[in-house]
């Protein structure tokens, strides 16, 4: 996880600057992330989440998604602490990324929007990218007046998993 | 009679025993005679039966032999075997009869004769069988046998004659025996009759001189005593039971006479005591209670003692009466004095009652005035009650109207609340619509993301997705607008409900005030009613009081009358007390007549 992350495999990559390509994105505070293309993504109302003991606050627990048990992480709390906790009183949705066994759920507090005719932007000029995700952002685009970041969610989620394990180890020690 | 003297002293059981012995002896001789007679007759009967049996057996032998002879002749002529059987049978019967005859024979000669006959018959029978056994070819032997048979028959004829004469001999002998027994029987009868006569004569003498004559003497003695002859005695000297009975009777009579004499003496003594007692009682009747009757040892002693005790009791009672009479005199004098004082008090009481009557008249007049005033006050109070009732009714009507208004407002509030509930239901539906639009939006988003993943191929789907998204957005906007409208309605409904609640509160306050007014009116009415009731009671009591006063006046009048009556009664009592004193003094004087000590 050092240096600029590589783009996802070509089979799954789409050129966002192509006018015919439609992307979706969601916002986390002032951070705007593109929903990954090329992998299955679903947007759902937040289901019942079963909390895990000794879990970090950004790990909300486990949820049942059509028979598959997935881990649910709160993106605002993960990327922009101290963000207000995503509770039932705040509107939020569950973004289910990828398919089993790599399926994972991300709690977001902004409704995804349709994006097309994105313009490529200079990634280095984008500021205020959270350190937690920076290593995994590999492209930036502008559209609808915002700068959208494209990142590798699979690698990022692996890092989140390592972060979870470190957190539990620190607690148990 | 000297000979019979020993018999007189025998006890009655022994006499009766002797009599019984004589009678038994006579009966015994008669019995023996009768027994002998029976014995002789039985012997005669038995001999006759034996003779008859012997005669029949002899006849049977004769007949059987003749039959056998006949069968023999028949056989000789007919040569039939049946004749032989008949012959044997006849001979057998004859033989049986001869054997039976031997039982009835009385002498040895007769037995020898019968044995000889029996032997001859056996020989005859043997010869006949010989004859039968001989064949027709043995005529010579047959002839010889036949001749032998004839010889036997002829030899048997005198024997049979003698056999036949046996029964006649026996018959003659039996007759001689019967005659002898008859003379014996006669002699026995005469002897027993003689004995019986002697027994009866002895019995007669014993009973006559031993029982009947003494009984007659005793009976005669008792009859004379019953007639009044006290000197008569039986004077039987025999020592048997009847003699003892006569002696006892004589002794009883002697004792009876002595007792009578003694009783006569006692009666005389009692008469003397009675006369003396009568004299003393006469003295007692002369009021001299100090007399004491002498207590004799006879039956009058108890009477004298009882009279003495009675006299003592009377003396004690009279003494007590005297004491009581003195007390009665004293008490009567005291009662007379008290009656006089009570009479005086009754007179004074009568005067006071008359004064009380006059005051009662005045009180009655005053009460009548009070009653009239109470009537007037009662009428005025009734008017006040009517006025109060009218006011109360008006207040009640006001309260009823206010309650109606409140009810109407409550109904309106309920309806408005239902309107609010309906708007909430609408809100719920709107939320459902919003949820539908949200989910539709999500669905459209997902479809969009899938279409985006599909690349160029998803462009057509994107169109549909966009439309769906637009519809979802429109629906969401409409739901939002509706929600806003519903919220506005709910807000206005809440405001209306608040306003109505305020109105209800005011109405309730007004109702409470009206209720309080009604209660006050009711209290006023109740107070007025109480006042009227009290005045009515005052009026009633006044009337009653007047009536009571009137009754009191009547009572006073009656008390006056009773006091007057009491005065009169007391006057009578005073005079009666004087009479009582006079009577007690008279009683004292009467008791003083008795000499008690």
TrEMBL record, chain A:
Highest taxon above the source species: Bacteria
One annotated GO biological process: chemotaxis
All copies of domain CheW-like, residue ranges: 20-169
Protein name (Swiss-Prot/TrEMBL): CheW-like domain-containing protein
Automatic annotation (TrEMBL), chain B:
Name of the protein: Methyl-accepting chemotaxis protein
Residue span, HAMP domain: 209-262
GO cellular component: membrane
The organism's taxonomic lineage, starting at the top: Bacteria, Pseudomonadati, Pseudomonadota, Gammaproteobacteria, Methylococcales
One Pfam short name: MCPsignal
InterPro entries: HAMP_dom, MCPsignal_dom
Domain of life: Bacteria
Keyword set, alphabetical order: Coiled coil, Membrane, Transducer, Transmembrane, Transmembrane helix
Membrane-crossing segments per the record: 12-35, 188-211
SUPFAM superfamilies recorded: HAMP domain-like, Methyl-accepting chemotaxis protein (MCP) signaling domain
